[in-house]
Amino acid sequence: MTAQQTQLQDLPPGLKRELLPKHVAVIMDGNGRWAKRQGLPRIMGHKRGVDALKDLLRCCKDWGIQALTAYAFSTENWKRPQEEVDFLMTLFQRVLRQELREMVEENVQIQFVGNLNALPRSLQEEISRSMAETKDNRSIRFTVATNYGGRQEILQACRAIAQKVQQGLLQPDEIDEAVFERHLYTAGIADPDLLIRTSGEMRLSNFLLWQMAYGEMYITDTLWPDFDRVEFSRALSAYQQRERRYGGV
Ligand code: FPP
């Protein structure tokens, strides 16, 4: 038995272990609206959003879901007021520093995907440290998309592949899905089975454009800070009713 199997907790009634998604992705939308409804500044919504994400990570780990990917900051989010961008960067850094020890103890592997070079230097250092210290952990793979854009990811993969062709390292007819995937930020991470988006918007918003080709989507009106275990089990239950055909019949 692996360490992970010994620690699995019972699933909520009605959920079947064999039908759980292996990889769940989340678009954590609605932090600002949540804060507004409470009469609080937007940044308080992001703070509460961190708590919701921590709960979800624990839940995935407890229930035996192997991978969780969260969209923390898109390439478009730089357009927000400078104050909010600065708050988010500082928040990411602080949370990483505070949570690293627990992630190590809980055997969580954390990694970041996106154009990380454009992030503040001190955040980049915290990211490198957390990735290095958890690289051999195996209970769950937790990926945080930061300064991530699906189109940008595809473009940089094309550039890297074109360069290899130019250098004679790759022939054009050798470029297949497997080669392409190896050049994405998410190389080595299986595609998500289920993408959850909170706060009711029915869009991908430039998230995992390639990877979501056959992923199931679940959209809830619940705002991200209110997304809890009960909401998650509803999403899993809906997923377990779906029939995945991958383009077949
Ligand atoms: C979208 O809500 C949320 C964000 C842009 C930030 C999400 C980030 C976190 C929850 C923190 C995660 C922390 C770590 C360390 C990974 P919104 O602001 O667009 O809400 P609105 O649509 O109601 O305005």
UniProtKB/TrEMBL annotation:
Pfam families: Prenyltransf. Its cofactor is Mg(2+). Keywords: Magnesium, Metal-binding, Transferase. Its EC number is 2.5.1.-. Substrate binds at residues 30-34, 42, 46, 74-76, 78, 80, 197, 203-205. The active site is at residues 29, 77. InterPro entries: UPP_synth-like, UPP_synth-like_CS, UPP_synth-like_sf. Mg(2+) binds at residues 29, 216. Binds 2 magnesium ions per subunit. GO terms for molecular function: ditrans,polycis-undecaprenyl-diphosphate synthase [(2E,6E)-farnesyl-diphosphate specific] activity. PROSITE patterns: UPP_SYNTHASE. Catalyzes the condensation of isopentenyl diphosphate (IPP) with allylic pyrophosphates generating different type of terpenoids. Belongs to the UPP synthase family. Homodimer. This is Isoprenyl transferase. It comes from Calothrix parietina FACHB-288. The lineage of its organism: Bacteria, Bacillati, Cyanobacteriota, Cyanophyceae, Nostocales. The gene is uppS.
